[in-house]
Description:
Low-confidence stretches: 246-251
Oligomer: single chain
Number of strands: 19
Number of helices: 20
Amino acid sequence: MDNDRLPYLRDKVKKLPLDPGCYIMKDQAGIIIYIGKAKALKNRVSSYFRSVEKHTDKVYKMVESVYDFEYIVTASEFEALVLECSLIKEYSPKYNILLKDDKGYFYVKISKPPWSRITAEKQKLDDGATYLGPYTSSFVVGQTVDETNKIFSLPTCSRKFPQEFRKGRPCLNFHIKQCMGVCRGRITEEEYQQVIDSAVEFIKSGSTQAVDKLTAEMAAASENLEFEKAARLRDRINAINRITEHQQVIDTKADNQDIIGFAQSDHLTCAVVLKFRNQRLVDKDDYIIRDAGDLQQFRGEFITGYYSSHTDRPKIVSVDGEFDDMSMIEQFLTQQAGRKVTLHVPKRSESYQLTQMARNNAAQRLSHETERTGKEVAVLDELARLLGLKSTPVYIEAYDISNIGSDTMVAGMVVFENARPKKDAYKKFSIKTQFTPDDYACMREVLTRRFNRYFEEKETGRGFGKKPDLILLDGGKGHVGVIRPLLNEMGLGDIPVFGMVKDDKHKTRAIAEDGGEIAINSHRTAFTLVTKIQDEVHRFSITYSRSKHKATAFELSLTKVAGIGENRAKALFKHFKTVKAMKAATCEELSQAPGMTAKVAENLYNFLHDEE
Length: 612
């Protein structure tokens, strides 16, 4: 690390007390770059200046910039938490998680008649349009506009009316009955304005009053024998009811509750906050944070920072997983709100389903920042949680031993990157040091060779020079028990290792660890991915084993040819690579192989083609 102040900082740490408090990191210019709290100042601060190479990128860069630090002793860890939040708000250090409540105002815009459009806008302009608002939630405004346009079949395209009447076919929205087809020129300006008025009334008064009014209009149209108009009104009523039914899915029994879910990918973490008020989803916040580190620790940091900068604090905060200092953070939120705030991690029921919804939203949001789909982010996130990993396993290696007798003991290594097979990284291993079938010994040999190559090539960061985020072995805890000590010996104990256990029908059943098994059947997406990995590594290794067995058998058959012994047979295979290439060679090409003569080549040619 390029920080010549480390000796000074380590010496200064020795003088710190073991009391709770806050520590303040500064750069050479005296600018505060990080503020943290600690249960024991000496222990916490010293952790920054030892084993610096093991820090996350964010912490490593922060420590590299530290020139000096100060500290403030407090009477309790809770007081340290309160002080930390206050100091972060005052100084906004660059390496702290800063979540600002910077929501602007949003409006529903109804453009000037005739042929008005309803859109969501961030600014209120002096353009003669009608604006409803302001609203503080872009989510609510966007949802309202989208629902209104669908219910009343209003156009959302870029066509200009009446200039573009009958100048092209109606778009897809017309054919799927999400637009009335104004572009056809069959709707009068008066009829269209009546629909706009109803839509605005719907936005202002809500679904119940809108349905009542539309029902009365439908009845009147029927009495006047205006059946087409009555049918259109009926369709609008049905559309409102469908939207309302859909919204019920995301209703909650809690009047005042926030749901928080997280997803991680590579160096990015996404946090999503779903806000329920009066039993309805009214808002959604999402944040992308780089180098957040361990999720269990980050959850607490996020919640503390979020509610320090947001004044709207609910009665209940439901989170998708456990985190450090939960009871203390609950006490902090209660103090900030001036009333009881409950923090909890639901394990079942409606609140649990809502945390999964928040987590899925986080995965989807994260997918926009990466090359992965929302499903791929979600499955790797679920696998990390299931296995208790500190970070998402983006680069996964899986190994399987296959043998058909002692002559063809081989291993296959497959790679899944971003939950997808990375076939150009697959590797084949012939067992070299083991002469009798022993899966444990073979697996140890393969992993030893693989990571010896890692140390030779790690500067490249490619192929064997890339360190996996997770190793999966086709086998139970016995395989794990052999490989974990090996990786520890090689200084690679930070790589997680698990086994993939099959049932008596050769189907994936569980994940094996040192102390037992983790059932994965109930975790559908993670189960599907692990099964896919296990099936792929088995297919790859058994295919290699069979081809090698076939080649070995053919190699032995070559010794029947006059002039060809074991050494010459091996040399031929090394030269031609495959049986197919050898059979396709002419007699002259055979004679040019290492160690061959014209006479032996002729004997071999006749042997190869006599077998056809």
